[in-house]
Amino acid sequence: MRFEWGAENITTFQNFKTIFLSILLEAFPFILLGVVVSSLLSVFVSEKMIARLIPKNPVLGVIVGCFLGLIFPLCECGMIPIVRRLMLKGMPLYIGIVYILSGPIINPIVFASTYMAFRNQPEIAYSRMVLAFTTAFIIGLIIYKFIKSNPLKAAQSSNVHEHFHGHQHHQQNFASKFVSVLAHASEEFFEMGKYLIFGAFITAVIQVTVSRAELVEIGEGEWSSYLFMMGLGYILSLCSTSDAFIASSFATTFSAGSLLSFLVFGPMLDLKNTLMMLSIFKTRFIIVLSLLIFIIVLFSSILIQNLYFA
Amino acid sequence: MSRFHHIVKAFIFFGFFAYILVLDKKGDLQLYIAPRMELYVKLAALGLFIVALYHCYHFLIRKQAEVHCDCGHNHASPSSFKSLIIYAIFFMPILLGFLTPDTILGSQMAEQKGVNFSSASSLKTVEPSSESQIVEPEDVLSEVERTEDMLNGVEIIIDTSNSNSETEAQELSENQSSEIVTELPEEDLDTLFASETFTEIYANYGKEIYTHDIIRVQEDIYLETLTTLDLFLDAFIGKQIEISGFIFRADGMKENEFAVGRFAVQCCSADASPYGVFLEYEDAKSWVDDEWVTIMGTIDRTTFNDFDIIKVNIKEIKRIEAPAEPYVYTNYDFGL
Q1: How far apart are CA B41 and CA A24, in angstroms?
Q2: Average pLDDT over residues B133-143
Q3: Which part of the chain is the DUF1980 domain (chain B) (predicted)?
């Protein structure tokens, strides 16, 4: 970190600007898609339809949640508003969380880009999918079994009014439905957007002030390499479609297991999406969820390293 | 929702829309977003514009606003102080975008991110032993080298005399080199480029560029070329290379050492990573960071920070204009 304000700092500031705005611009299409789909769901899909589609069996429900990403390949920015909307319409918490966790990984786009980045080691791409499934599956069951209270933030208006929407909008014509989709989309854009901007800001500050070399020094050693790669995944907050290319640049320095911990942990939990989740879930729930993700990803990637890659 | 909120929100949405539009007009969108993602960002701009219109409409036709909010939301009823802070958060990136210049990531960021001199690193990790399987290519090479060195002299003369007809010169050199290859039995070339399933496309590309007298690292296939050179470094030692990029330096470089390279971007500049070649040049001192240059030199190897990497001994270096597209991207047609 530097403190005097010279030419070098102007460059640092410009780099910060580039990274900050590039994360925002990159996230815009996805967050807009997310809020628009969420608004469409809110206006056009009833609680009954959701209830009919959701499997009664929790294990089946979790499995369906894990593979929702195959049908709706979205990244985390777009997913959070949609999941909230689905939950308000009656989708159980555990399925929503499983989709938030597995959706950004178990989808065709992410598989393809991981396969590309590790062309010589397709095992990495397959293991990434398997680890993501395992982690989401276990967490889904834990949530089903142990978390009974509703962790959704109640403060926002949407919760209270959800009930009316179903009936009232039926009588509306297409034009006014379109307008109410816009109203919802705008409202949600502001709700999610402030966390996105804040997350992108911190991520950009870290990227321009802490150098990779400084980080790698921390990450030397058996355990610390996992912690380092997971920490890196957390602060970089990259899109799951591009993080495999970053991971591959560490291939000579770190073990396959620790690369996998990066590839699975990052999309499930990072700075940007923690802040975005804060917009819909209570803080206590996010802490519990983060701990679960952390522990399960850590141990399962160490396990896969020792059983398969060693 | 009061008219005030509508007009502020309209400004915010319109601000983001205008920023994307202006970036695109100036051709600077590529400094933030990879070309393959640009379409989505432009579609997002359209969406932002529509939402901006929606808020404008409500601002202008106030009564209608209440009718449409039939769900009874108090859409933005948090305290006015809180909503001012939130609006400030949204205006900050817009102002930052418009008021400060758009710049290219350069040497400082390259140093920060850590340069990847060994672009094939992820390919090499499979079986480090595979390298030892490659038959020492020295004897094969030396023969070729001698003939080629003579030809190189010719090549350079051709190149400088009519630099306009570069393609012609290249064709010529390819013709010449194909003669050399015929001297080199097919299986020797295969030994030189021994490959496995996952490195096969690089081996094939390697065999192709091996026949060129000067290996030109083209920008549309930049990463792939560097990866090939790195992967089959033994085969390429002594060959001529031409590469362009900006100058940067990494920690641990000596006074006569520097590097030339480009940033590779996957989705957005947040994932940009620098790739380049390690250079040795007596007069390195007089070449400053971030200058764009084309260098011509001979491929060699060195060890840097415990990695065995490609090194180029510079024969010729010249300043160039920064290219219109500063970053390089994965070539998705490679090997197809």
Answers
A1: 10
A2: 40
A3: 9-116, 194-329
Rounded Cα distance between B301 and B297, Å, is 13
Residue B326 lies in a domain: no
Helix (H/G/I), strand (E/B), else coil: A218: helix
Cβ-defined contact of A245 to B96 (cutoff 8 Å): no
For residue B50, report the phi and psi dihedrals to the nearest 5 degrees.
-65, -45
The reply to whether B335 falls in a domain is no
Structural Rg of chain B based on CA atoms:
27
Amino acid residing at B293:
V
Cα–Cα nearest to B317, from B287, B334, B294:
B294
B116 and B140 housed in the same domain: yes
Between CA B65 and CA A194, with CA B87 as vertex, the angle to 5 degrees is 105
* Within-domain flag for B336: no
| A 127-146 residues with CB < 8 A to B | none
Q: Is the pLDDT of residue B158 over 70?
A: no
Rounded Cα–Cα distance for residues A82 and A92 (Å): 13
pLDDT tens profile A212-257: 777 777 767 778 889 988 998 898 888 787 788 778 777 767 888 9
- For residues A110 and B166, give the distance between their C-alpha atoms in angstroms, rounded to a whole number: 40
Query: Per the domain annotation, does B117 fall within a domain?
Result: yes
Q: What is the pLDDT of residues B293-330, one digit of tens each?
A: 999 999 999 988 778 889 999 999 999 999 999 999 98
- My answer on whether B209 and B70 are in the same domain is no
Spatial distance between the Cα atoms of A234 and A271, rounded to a whole number of angstroms: 6
The neighbour count for residue B92, using CB atoms within 10 Å, is 13
Cβ within 8 Å of B, A 178-197: 179-180, 182-183, 185-187, 189-190, 193-194, 197
Backbone angle region of A2, left / alpha / beta, with phi > 0 → left and psi within -120 to 50 → alpha: beta
Q: What's the pLDDT at B154?
A: 37
Q: Which of B67, B125, B205, B332 to mutate to test the interface with A (most CBs of A within 10 A)?
A: B125
Name the residue range of residue B32's domain: 3-103
C-alpha torsion sign, points A131, A134, A137, A143: negative
Question: Of B103, B119, B145, which residue sits at a domain end?
Answer: B103
Residues B97 and B126 in one domain: no
Residues B52 and B144 in one domain: no
Per-residue pLDDT tens for A92-127?
Answer: 999 999 999 999 999 888 898 888 788 778 899 999
Phi/psi at A244 (5° precision): -65, -30
Strand partners, A146: none
Residue A166 pLDDT = 41
Task: Measure A137 CA to nearest chain B CA, in Å.
Answer: 29
Q: Do residues A43 and A172 make contact, with C-beta atoms less than 8 angstroms apart?
A: no
**DSSP H helices in chain A:** 7-44, 47-53, 58-71, 76-88, 93-102, 108-117, 122-146, 157-168, 174-209, 212-218, 222-236, 243-248, 256-268, 271-278, 283-304
Q: B296 and B177 share a domain?
A: yes
Question: Is there a contact between A243 and B271 if contact means CB atoms under 8 Å apart?
Answer: yes
